Amino acid sequence: MLKRYFLRMRGAARKAARKSPAEIIWSWLGAFAGIWLVWVFNEFLGLPGTANLYLIGSFGASAVLLYGAPAAELSQPRNLIGGHAISAIVGVACALLCPPNVALASALAVSTAIAAMHLTQTLHPPGGATALIAVIGGDSVRELGFTYALSPVLSGAVVMLLVALLVNNLSSNEPRHYPKHWF
């Protein structure tokens, strides 16, 4: 029984093919434009550059999915928008419920965000980081309360979605076209 358990951890042979230079360039261009435009949005709103409130860490992981794997189920608009928004709400709620216990609030935020994304069919792995940032993001994030879900999370995700629509559809590579579905 124990041997069988450990045998499951072997994995299988790697089957992924190397991406073409064109695909790598499109991924780079999308990620650059997406992150840069989220920053520009931050500046447009007049927030000080040191605040960086609109450039949350989970957007880096979303960039990998949206621009590096645009055909993936976890990259689709429903997953991007729903996953981030739901996770932000869950994260803020956990931060408010367990303010003195950051470890408990963090674990509760990430695990509950995953469950909520599964239940709503909006699983987007960066959503776990979005929930965690709501708990550990410091005073500037905690002061936002549930507004965190709208801004920076939802507004930043929408900016990245718009860039994904523009950049991924510029490619002549049909499998790269985005989205595969909206809902």
List the helices and strands and how they pair.
Elements: H1 2-7, H2 21-44, H3 58-68, H4 77-97, H5 102-120, H6 126-136, H7 139-142, H8 147-168
Helix pairs in contact: 2-3, 2-8, 3-6, 3-8, 4-5, 4-6, 4-8, 5-6
Features:
183 residues, mainly alpha, flat
List segments where confidence is low: pLDDT < 50 over at least 5 consecutive residues. Answer: none
Mean of the pLDDT scores?
A: 92
Number of strands: 0
The radius of gyration computed from the alpha-carbon positions, rounded to a whole number of angstroms, is 18 Å
Specify the biggest β-sheet: none
Output the number of helix runs: 8
Structural class determined from secondary elements: mainly alpha
Q: Can you tell me the number of structural domains?
A: 1
H/E element sequence: HHHHHHHH
Strand content range? under 5%
Distance between the termini: 42 Å
What spatial form do the alpha-carbon principal axes imply? flat
Helix content: 55-70%
